[in-house]
Every structure is written in structure tokens, then in C-alpha cells.
Please model this.
Amino acid sequence: MSHYVSSLEAEYRRYKALGEAAIAQLADRDLTIVASNGGNSIATIVWHVAGNLESRFTDFRTSDGEKPWRNRDDEFLARVVKKSELLEKWERGWAALLGSMSQLTDADLTQTVTIRRQSLGIDEALHRSLAHTAYHIGQIVFLAKQIRSADWRCLSIPLGGSAAHNARGADESAAAHARVLKESI
Amino acid sequence: MASSLTELLFLIDTGYDRASWHGPNLRGSLRGLTPRRAAWRPGKQRHSIWELVVHAAYWKYVAWRRLTGATPGSFPLKGSNWFARRRDLSAGLWRDDLALLDEMHRSLRAAVADLHPGDLDRTGGRKSKVTTRALVAGIAAHDVYHAGQIQLLKKLAPR
Model:
């Protein structure tokens, strides 16, 4: 059993589902809106998150996580994209991550990988990446909420809904949360 | 796996207040904020930074309670999940809520440090499907998720 890898993968999938449930509420034109001067749009953040995941997890065990073909600065350029194009980029990044994770067992976690010529444990590489991904997906959800305003469909326990949620004794696992989010799209 | 506990501690530390690779962690994102900016909200029915702080403190408390088996109801504020913090913008109350967040983090961290590595893959009771490991990793990610949002709120909140 790979408990550790499974729990991390479930957590990753929770954040993937959160990002997708937020993006699903948006139109093409919403993807380029910025909340403040110099701020990033959802398109920019998605480009960065997906670019990071694709670079880190392509040939994860055998090559440096910062690939020569990655252009990190380019990820932050303002861009106009359709949602279909955005989701294609998003999925490419996630496919690299989830494909690599599917090959891992708990016994592999003490092995090392290289990122920017620095050697680090696979467990630490996954933790760093999960934190980076969660950080930016928090921003995607925030921006989507800002754009949809009163029409926003809540992605967690709605305001005033905690008592009902507790009374239901809901399954609070990351996998269950991801499932509920997917069903909401 | 001997390193599991150390890694989980690393994960919650870097999510909260230890220098992190991904950018500001939760405590770092709150540095230097005034109560007025912390209480600012970007729209109706939207959360302020202040409310995110108490929300994060509450979920650290819930995780601590599940790890230690403490009885429910000992969180210092009445209610659950989201707590209205809008009536009094005094520096003292803001400091109190930051102290609450620190205290909940310290308690949680101590509970994680006390775990036996063999406990990490156990679930918290018959009905729960969440392993201890998943619970702790989830709290760390939750801190960082909201840190990302606080960074955006700070850009929007009037100085």
C-alpha cells in the first residue's frame, strides 16, 4: 500500500477540482481579467501552474525538473486564450504530475530528484509542488469569485451552512471533496 | 518510513511560518497588516483577511482535536468554520486573533510532533476516511491556499 503517495495525490486532486470548478463558472472573456494593476489573470496563473507541473514532472525521476524547454518568464506574459485552450494547457501539466505519481510507491519517497541542479528528496519535491499549486489555485478561486460576484457558486461549505454540514457528518476526505466539486461542474 | 513525521512537520512549518520555497506562507502573508486593511472585504458576502485568519485558526483547532481526541467545543470562539469579525477594528482585537492563530498552530504542531510514525495511516475513528497523514497534509495546503488569496486581498485593500 502506498499510503503517503495516495494521500498526497488525493490532496493534489482536491486542488485540481477546485481550480476546474472555479474555471467552469467563467466565460472566455473572464480569463484575462486582472484584479489589480500589475496583477495576474486566471489565464496567466493557469499558464504558470501548468508550465511548472509539466516541467517538474516530465521525466521526473531521470531529468532536472527545470527543463531547458520551459520559459518561465513567458508564463507570466498577458495572454488572450479561449477556455478550451486554457484547459488543454492545464491538463498537460496535470497529466505530467499524475502520470509520475502513478509510478511512485511510498518506498520511492526517500529517493532523490534534481530540481534546478539541486538534489532533494521526492517527498520534499512533492510537498513543495503541492504548496505551490495550492497557493496559486487559491488565487484562481479568489479571482473567479471576484469576477462572478453574486453569481458565484460556492465551492466549499457555504456561509451559514456549517451546522448543516456538520450534522450530515459528511465525508471530509480530499477525494470526496474533489468528487463533489466535479459533480458541480 | 522514518522520515514521514519529519516531512509532515516540514510541510506544516513551511505552510505556516518557516521560510518556504513557494513564496509567502500564511503567517508571512499577514506581516505588517493593519486591522483596517485586515477587515476590508472586496465585496458583499466576501471574506476579509481577518476572517480568513480565524477560519484558518479554526481548522487547525479541528485537526488538533482529531489528533488528540479532545472533546469538541473548546475553540475559544462560538461557532464553526467562518466567524464574523467586523464590529471592532481595534489593534488589540487583531493582535488577539493573530495570537489565536499562532496558538492553534503551536498546539497542532505539538500534536503532530507527538505522533508515532505508525499512527500516520490510521483514520480518526470508525466513520472517518481521513488518515492522520492526509489530515496534516490537508491543513498545510489549506494554509497556503489562503495565503495566496491574502496576497491578492492585500493588493486590493486600500492603504
